Structures are given as C-alpha cells and as structure tokens.
UniProtKB/TrEMBL annotation:
<keyword id="KW-0411">Iron-sulfur</keyword>
<keyword id="KW-0479">Metal-binding</keyword>
<protein>
    <recommendedName>
        <fullName>Glutaredoxin</fullName>
    </recommendedName>
</protein>
<dbReference type="GO" id="GO:0046872">
    <property type="term" value="F:metal ion binding"/>
</dbReference>
<feature type="binding site">
    <location>
        <position position="35"/>
    </location>
    <ligand>
        <name>[2Fe-2S] cluster</name>
    </ligand>
</feature>
<dbReference type="InterPro" id="IPR014434">
    <property type="entry name" value="Monothiol_GRX"/>
</dbReference>
<dbReference type="Pfam" id="PF00462">
    <property type="entry name" value="Glutaredoxin"/>
</dbReference>
<dbReference type="InterPro" id="IPR004480">
    <property type="entry name" value="Monothiol_GRX-rel"/>
</dbReference>
<comment type="similarity">
    <text>Belongs to the glutaredoxin family. Monothiol subfamily.</text>
</comment>
<keyword id="KW-0001">2Fe-2S</keyword>
<dbReference type="InterPro" id="IPR002109">
    <property type="entry name" value="Glutaredoxin"/>
</dbReference>
<dbReference type="InterPro" id="IPR036249">
    <property type="entry name" value="Thioredoxin-like_sf"/>
</dbReference>
<keyword id="KW-0676">Redox-active center</keyword>
<dbReference type="GO" id="GO:0015036">
    <property type="term" value="F:disulfide oxidoreductase activity"/>
</dbReference>
<keyword id="KW-0408">Iron</keyword>
<dbReference type="InterPro" id="IPR033658">
    <property type="entry name" value="GRX_PICOT-like"/>
</dbReference>
<dbReference type="GO" id="GO:0051537">
    <property type="term" value="F:2 iron, 2 sulfur cluster binding"/>
</dbReference>
C-alpha cells in the first residue's frame, strides 16, 4: 500500500472515530460478524448496552491495512471510545471481565452507571 492509497483510508478512520462515540473496526458487521474475535467484541458491547457503529474492514483492503497503521496495532477488531483506541478483542474481553470496560463506558456517559 502506498502513502497515497493510505491517506483516504486514514482520513476516513480519523473522521469516523471523531464523529462517533464508540466505533468497532471489525471483520463483518455487527449483525453478521465474520470472525470469532469480532463476534466476541460485538457480544460484549451488546451485553453492556453500548450503542456503537461497526465498520467492516473486509470491504476495503486500504481500510483493513490503514486501521493497523492508524494504531500501530496488528489485529482486528479494534475498539475506539470517544476517539481513543481501547484495544483489540483480548483487551476488550479482559476489561469486560474485570469490570473496567463497564466503568469506562459509565464514566464517559455512554451507559448508566
């Protein structure tokens, strides 16, 4: 991927995480995840009652590579809350199990405390 090809994807990513409170860059869409890790992340967000948008990185090769460049994080899914990269599936799962994820969403006013 060239820098020229990356730029529109990176611009899209930056705008998306700025414009939406909770964004999950994932394989597939929330109603039909296309990998187990994305499915787990969706289930956790749904369980917590968090409104989020899912962005299917499988629809665009530049987007799929761009999201990895944007965060310098090699795996998908990737969760963002109010523009901040939270982590991938393992981190999201660990934060959920410890209660930290629920606390984060409550502190951000995204779910009831």
């Amino acid at each position: 991927m060239t820098d020229a090809a990356a730029s529109p994807a990176l611009d899209f990513i930056a705008k998306t995480v700025t414009d939406h409170a909770v964004v999950l860059f994932m394989k597939g869409v929330p109603d039909q995840p296309r990998c187990g890790f994305s499915a787990v992340s969706v289930q956790i967000l749904d369980h917590l009652g968090v409104e989020f948008i899912g962005v299917d990185v499988l629809q665009d090769d530049d987007l799929r590579q761009g999201i990895k460049t944007f965060t310098d994080w090699p795996t998908i899914p990737q969760l963002y809350v109010k523009g901040e990269f939270i982590g991938g599936s393992d981190i999201v799962r660990e934060m959920f199990q410890s209660g930290e994820l629920k606390t984060l969403f409550a502190e951000q006013g995204l779910i009831a405390a």
